[in-house]
Amino acid sequence: LECIKVIEGSPKVVKVCEVGDVFGELALLYNCPRAASVVAKGECVCWKLDRESFNHIVKESAAKKRNQYENFLKSVSLIS
Questions:
Q1: For residue 42, what is the DSSP state?
Q2: How far apart are CA 10 and CA 27, in angstroms?
């Protein structure tokens, strides 16, 4: 997959996606139009997420990370 963006009037490849890569996450995070178009150069399988599902995953991940930090800080004898 090639991510193509028009820069100074001509299309430029700004990223080449490999297996496991992601694209479009900034548009989902900030609720804005995507910054580039993605073109498949061969057969591929792409998965899509709607904004609500993406935000749920991001918030859940952030909450888990916050809990890990809190538990670590509770284990530090100097702080607790």
A1: S
A2: 22
> Distance (Å, rounded) from C-alpha 51 to C-alpha 64?
20
CA distance 80 to 75: 7
Q: 9-32: buried (b, 16+ CB within 10 Å) or exposed (e) per residue? A: eeeeeeeebeeeeebbeeebeeee
Main-chain phi, psi angles of 17, to 5 degrees:
-85, 140
Distance of CA 14 to the CA centre of its chain: 16
pTM above 0.85, yes or no: no
Q: What is the pLDDT of residues 25-76, one digit of tens each?
A: 888 888 888 889 999 999 999 998 999 999 899 889 989 999 999 999 989 8
Show the tokens assigned to 30: 């900030």
